[in-house]
Amino acid sequence: MQTYLIRRLLALIPTLFFASIIVFSVIRLIPGDIIDLMLSENDFGASDRETRAQITEALGLHEPIYVQYLVWAKKLVLHGDLGNSLWQDTPVIDDIKARLPYTLELGALGLFFALVIAIPIGIYSAIHQETLGDHVGRTISILGLSIPSFWLGTMVVIMPAIWWGWSTPTGAVPFLDDPIRNLQVFLTPSLILGLALSAVTMRMTRTMMLEVLRQDYIRTAWAKGLKERVIILRHAMKNALIPVITLIGLFVPILIGGTVIIEQIFTIPGIGQLLLESVSARDYPVITGIFLVVGLIVIATNLVVDLCYGFLDPKVRYDD
Amino acid sequence: MTEATASAQGLAKTSRPRSLVLEFLGRLFREKPLGAFGAIIFLILLLTGIFADFIATEGFNVIHPLDKLKPPGGEYTYFDADFNKQTGTYLLGSDQLGRDVFSRIVYGARISVIIAFSATTLSIIISLTLGLMAGFFGGRIDMASQRFVDAWMSFPDLIILIVAVSILGPGMWQVILVLGLLYGIAGSRIVRGAVLSTRENMYVHAAQTIGASTPRILLRHILPNIMAPVIVLFTTRLAAVILAESGLSFLGLGIPPPAPSWGGMLSIEGKSYMFLAPWLAILPGVALTIVVYGINMFGDALRDLLDPRLRGGGGRYGGGKPRNKRRT
Known about the structure:
The complex is a heterodimer of chains A (320) and B (328). Chain A has 320 residues and is an all-alpha fold. Chain A has a domain at 92-269: MetI-like (MetI-like fold). Helices cover 78% and strands 0% of the residues of chain A. Chain A contains 13 helices and no strands. In chain A, helix 11 packs across helix 12 (271-281). The longest helix of chain A has 36 residues, at 92-127. Chain B is mainly alpha-helical and 328 residues long. Chain B has a single domain (31-62, 99-310), classed as MetI-like fold. Chain B is 68% helix and 3% strand. Chain B has helices at residues 2-14, 16-31, 33-50, 52-55, 101-137, 139-153, 157-168, 172-199, 202-209, 214-222, 227-250, 262-272, 279-306; strands at 75-79, 85-89. In chain B, strands 1-2 form a two-stranded antiparallel sheet. In chain B, strand 1 (75-79) and strand 2 (85-89) form a beta hairpin. At the A-B interface, helix 1, helix 6, helix 7, helix 8 and helix 11 of A face helix 6, helix 7, helix 11, helix 12 and helix 13 of B.
């Protein structure tokens, strides 16, 4: 286990390196020079060479790109410094820290709803294979996969307002300030976020349950005269859900991507909103920072999920 | 009777590829009625896209200033070429500029078709190139490219898309390029996996032994044998591309107006007028859902019929990570 952990961590290094290269180089390709924007904002003509040179130097943009990368990486690794926002001059890491909790909460609740909706239906579908209930469940599952979340979100905002004059509460507050208000605001967005993922989870649960239910030890359990409930919940479900755990790791990027749209519809001030804001302002350090933080979260959760996998499934050995 | 059978057999022999397709279609309709239903939806989308000019009652950007926000079935008046007053109905209503929503949705189908096919084709080409190289040559190339793909895949699709489109600017070819690249790199995993297992077949070793060149082995021996997962990948990607494009357009980063992208229609017209004219938000979403649903159903059926190994789950023994299913 220990050697596996070390190997996994070592394998992370090239991945992290490539990730940082992707982030850094992709972001620097953004056209629409920040200096032009700043100059026009402050009523300087774009021809004002001296001011331009000063700003370029102050921002460190005059160095060759690999030097810029090394400066950036050094700051990042040594001080956890993602640079300052080009506009507000506030540390990027602070901006992200302020917004991240909303996105993480949205993602976690979305994941929770995905599992809570999907697993019971998936199990039901597997037990009642090829019955009406199974077909309905599977059809709904593919439907859930096909409805764009931005459309569903818009509908959920519009329809109740038209029919009953009721709309989803907005105005997110931090969880610790006002938990009830916070959950009220997050309930609908996270349900919508979870719905799309529940489709995949449900199919996975169903497939795995079907496979497990055909195995010998389940037949033995039946032969022993155990109750159906015990067989399903205690014997089959435990094994069937192991691959579903893996899905969670794959969901993390989808969840974070999905929150961009959901945050936009429900005006939740999370990372997604920050990203859209900084993209339109061409605020490179903020975009870079968000990119990097999101990438790190995904890489870290995948590592944790892989380790959990070995913990849950004794058949998986890490020694060899 | 016997003659007829004999001639039918002769026919089947001479036109073997066609009979394979027919046989496949037969299986699709017999074994997977829902998949066949999805295939029909897909076909309708294709035909609507191709023949948009004939189906739409007018251009996607014809403005009737007097007929703003007419509900579906609402009447309108117009003057024909001879300046005679005529009346008609908006099948699906009109938008805030008085444009016919039905025509816009029909032209929206064309945009979806163009983007879906070009981006998916581009992505498959990229996937095949990367996947064949990494899978067949292995070693350092494989190691480096896989770490790169790892890094690439640790960024959410939508976030890569937003940043990339903001670099290139909104527009049709930008969206195609970015989506193609995004799904191409991600899909190379699936191709690589298929190549890895095909590479070990005896006939590949045999071909190597008799001195066949590497391109020949790749193109004549390996490529045909990984077509099943590639076809499934192609279909599922079509749906993903359509969804991604509409999501981008919804955020205002995809196809710029006045082009009638379904996602953009939902965002610009739909969100601003959602209480006055809810159909503007409802209809493009319905179109989108039906199309993606159809393609997903079709893709699902294809997966089952063509490639039992991809049928979901973590492989037969439950131990393998379902990496392949990542971006489908």
